[in-house]
Every structure is written in C-alpha cells, then in structure tokens.
Design a protein that fits this description.
This protein is α+β, with helices and mostly antiparallel strands and 275 residues long. The protein is 28% helix and 28% strand. It has 4 helices and 12 strands. The strands form 2 sheets. A 6-stranded antiparallel β-sheet has the order 9-8-5-4-1-12. Strands 2, 3, 6, 7, 10 and 11 form a 6-stranded antiparallel β-sheet that branches. The longest helix is centred in the N-terminal third of the chain and has 38 residues. It starts with a helix and ends in an 8-residue tail after the last strand. The N terminus is likely disordered.
Amino acid sequence: MTRSENLSRRKPSSSSSSSSSTPSSGTSRIVYRESRRSSESEFPFWQQNWFIVLLFVMALGFFALALFLFLSLDSDNGPSSTASAASSEGVEVQITYGTVLKLMHERSKFRLHSHDVPYGSGSGQQSVTGFQGVDDGNSYWVVRPQPGTSAKQGDTIKSGTIIRLQHMRTRRWLHSHLHASPISGNLEVSCFGGDSESDTRDYWRLLIEGSGKTWKQDQRIRLQHVDTGGYLHSHDKKYSRIAGGQQEVCGVREKRADNVWLAAEGVYLPVTESK
C-alpha cells in the first residue's frame, strides 16, 4: 500500500468521526430541553399561578362579606320595616285591630315597655315602664278590640273607641287600678291576665288629638283608662334599681302634655273592613 492510499483512507475516517460526533452532541441538547419541559409540567396549576388564585379567593371573600352585611342590615329593620316603607312613600298608615306596634311618649321619645319583672310594691303585678331604646322586643303591643263587640282584625279604630293593648312577649294586658305608682304615687299601670283572662281594668279609651276621626300612625293620641279615668302618662322620673334608667309609667287624671303618645315602629295590618 502506498503512502497516498493511507492518507486517502484517514480523511474519510476523520470526517466520519467528526460527523458522528456532531449528531451526538445535537442529540444531547434536544434531550436536555425535553427533560426541562417535563420537569416544569410536574408542578400543579395553582403552584404555577398562585398569585392569580390568591386574588380569586380574596374576591370571593369580599363578596361573601358584602352579602352577609347586606342581609344583616336588612333583617335589623325588623317589624318596623312595613311602617317605615309606607311612611317614606307618603302613604297614610292606619292602625287596625291586630296591628303590632310601639307607643312612643311624645315628650321623652321613650317607648311603652314591659317585661316579666313584678313591682316591689303596690299590686306586685308585672311592671310597665318607659324604655329609651328603639330595638327592644319588649316594647311591642298588639292592638285588640273590646270583647263582645263586632270588631275584627283589620278594622280601623275611631276616636272614642275602647281598646285593649296586649304585651306581645308576655301576653298580658296593659292594666291599671287604684294602687299607687312606685315613684310618683299616681295610679299604678301594670300588666295582668293573659289570652284567656281579661277584665274591665284592661280597657282604655282612644282619644285622638286634633281633627282626625280614625287612628293613624304618627297621630297624637291619649289613652284614658275606663275604670279609673287616668290618662296613660310618663315623665322624666326614672327607676334606679330593678329597671335602672327606665322611666315611670303611671296614670294621671288630668290632661297634661306628658300623657300624649304616638304610634311608632310596628307591623301595621291593612284595612279589611267593608266600605
């Protein structure tokens, strides 16, 4: 073999080796890239996009909080929502039998109130006071007719009509007699009886101030006790112990500025009587 033949053989071999090494290096780069992509896809979506997921969760939380606050504020309106809605629309709200309401003392703005706490003197019956808070459930009264009359639920009430007020929570009647009231010594006003127990000492005559003939919300009224002649009355004399901070409610036989009341919050039933 000549020297020229040896050289010709070496050239192809060197070129072949270089050509074979080139693809191998190219293959190693492709494999590296593929393995990198596969390692990235091993992480779940929420780990790769945690910030977006966090924003989504926060948005849901704010929405739930807003919904909760809206429902809470709506439910806080309670029974007064019917009367408030009607008043805001300029509709005249008439008080009918079956209406559940709060009576507000005109001068002090305290509500006629009772609770299952007896007087420590006088009759010892369930006490009646004036309560400053608007949202207390013990200040609701149901307007009832005098027994033995044809009056029914939904009928309007004219000035001069005898009515009864039933305390919604304890089911006892607004009551009065000749016992002395605890603070001022006037006629005691209490709650007495129940659904099946009522007498003439539960009777109060509705007297509308002004020219109105039937009882309407926000109308100034007096309630005169039939048996004693005393007007439902309150003043700034307050209890210091059992009903601390609450005003005395009593009966006074003279007409005074302190025995005027107004129908305030409540559920006012619509008029159903035939015309």
